[in-house]
Amino acid sequence: MDLPEFISPPPEKEAVELALDALIFEPLETDEVKRVEAKDEETPPLKAYLLLDASINPDIPVCAEAFSEPARCLFDGAAFEDLGDVGPWLVELRRYGDAWDWFVEDGYGQNWGIIIHSRLPLMRLKTQMKKFIKIEDEDGETYFFKYYRPQHLNTYLPTFDDSQRSSFLRGLDAIFAETHGDPKFLQRHKLRPDGTLQSRHVDLIETGMPLRIQPPSEEDVAQLLAKAAQDPATAG
């Protein structure tokens, strides 16, 4: 009898979840270790954030406000009253937190939003990301730019000129966005030291498969039972 998926998820699904966890949170832990070893008390810690588009799913603002992790809509004042239910929401993440578990289980692969690495605190990051919600075209017409949808980010970010790219990524260490139509590939964008854009496609299944805990084979089980039978102390 097959076990329910929540007990024994399909190998590919488990690999994607493990790869996402490693890619998003291991750099934060590595950064923490380096700062402690260097006794660096001035550099702010590297943090992870979700930036989600509430117009995709009505549960997003409800859940963002309900979770224990800090969350803010990018809209303020009257704009928040009118558009908070469909606007962009910024959520600070912690490993194994409710917000992250919810996003990975329900939102990843659904074009909900992007993931950000930054040393900026939540409110400063909100101010930074809010700058790019409205853009003007060559004719002076103003538009909402939903760059926080993965499909839009992956399409338009590589087309930015040097000035636009530098301004958009100021204060950000990296941005992660699922690949539209094929979310097993995660795209990671960041600035190189020379100011050019580095975009990397990460195969989540290939990355996550080695992280899975493999069940023992029948041969392994037989060997363990045989060893236990020969060593009563081990069996006890």
UniProtKB/TrEMBL annotation:
InterPro entries: DUF4123. Residues 49-166 form the DUF4123 domain. This is DUF4123 domain-containing protein.
